[in-house]
Amino acid sequence: MIFDTIILGSGPAGFSASIYAGRAGLLCLQLSGPEEGGKLTLTDKIENYPGVGTVTGFELINTLKAQALETGITYKNESAIQVNFNKYPFEIKTENEFYSTKTLIIAMGSRVNWLNIPSEEKFKGRGISVCATCDGFFYKNKDVAVIGGGNTALYESLHLAQTSKRVTIICKDSFLNGERILLDKVKNTPNIQILNNSAVVEFIGTNKLTHLKLHQTPPERDFLLPVDGCFEAIGFSPSSQLFQNKLDINAKGYIKTNCQTFETNIEGVYACGDIQEQHYRQAIIASGSGALASLSAIEFLTHTNLSQ
């Protein structure tokens, strides 16, 4: 079987692309990737996605998935591990089998960034987390820290503040960089404190995390912050390793695309969502880019008469 399009990824970009492909009557296969919903499922509260009010990341993903499946697409919980753009139709290999497709839409999103300091690995899962929604329960009435200064860090802090005794935001810059409404909520939450111009240089503990060693400048000083847990929210990197030396990718790892069609340097191959968007990283923007990538694939198939 040769698919009209294969969509890699199951975040808002991937499901949006599937909805448009399915409604156009394309023979469409969507491969979920290793984590259905991607990093959006780590978000406890989404308030700025038009038309759905306040929802969790899980709720939004489930809504998008249900809408995509209603169009009749094929959906599989598999991940692409190899692609071949030297043959047409293109070949996609997963853990289970090979697939062929006339167009490909890459919506694989991004992965969590870590500090990558020597003491970090020891405490992953033993005091260090990247998901307040997942692990915040374990720190009820305890002192926790959140590393980061953007929207993700602010959301994490507000979530943790509901149950934790104290939340300390550790920001390497002189100011937090997030939406005004979130900044106002953080500043008006009494059990959240902010340490600007600060960086974690070491995680300290025996069997579990007990302290963060921080360097703050100015003033130039090192000090220990007692914590029961620490949540890293320092951003994400695009999941584009599979396409190295196959597609045009910039120095930061983002796939280069045409800003109107989302086509890559290979005709019939498109990229959408956070794997190519390096500035705003919003769910609604990912959804829009997924729709545009799918419409471009539909137009490509129509004009080349390959979907007949």
Entry summary:
By secondary structure, the protein is an alpha/beta fold.
- Pattern of helices and strands: EHEHEEEEEHEHEHEHEEEEEEEH
* Uncertain ranges: none
Distance between the termini: 14 Å
Shape: elongated
Number of strands: 17
Q: Overall mean pLDDT score?
A: 94
Round the Cα radius of gyration to an integer and report it: 21 Å
Largest sheet entry: 7 strands, mixed
- Approximately what portion of the residues adopt beta-strand conformation? 25-35%
Which structural class do the helices and strands define? alpha/beta
Notes on the structure:
- This protein is α/β, with parallel strands linked by helices.
- 24% of the residues lie in helices and 27% in strands.
- It has seven helices and 17 strands.
- The protein has helices spanning 12-23, 57-70, 120-123, 132-135, 151-161, 180-187, 283-304; strands at 2-8, 28-31, 74-76, 80-84, 90-94, 98-106, 110-112, 128-129, 143-147, 166-170, 192-195, 198-205, 209-216, 221-226, 229-232, 236-238, 269-271.
- Strands 1, 2, 3, 4, 5, 6 and 17 form a seven-stranded mixed sheet that branches. Strands 8-15-9-10-11 form a five-stranded parallel sheet, with helices on one face. A three-stranded antiparallel sheet has the order 12-13-14, with no helix packed on it.
- Helix 1 (12-23) packs parallel to helix 7 (283-304).
- The longest helix is centred in the last third of the chain and has 22 residues, at 283-304.
- The chain is elongated, with a radius of gyration of 21 Å.
- The two termini are 14 Å apart.
- The model has no long low-confidence stretch (mean pLDDT 94).
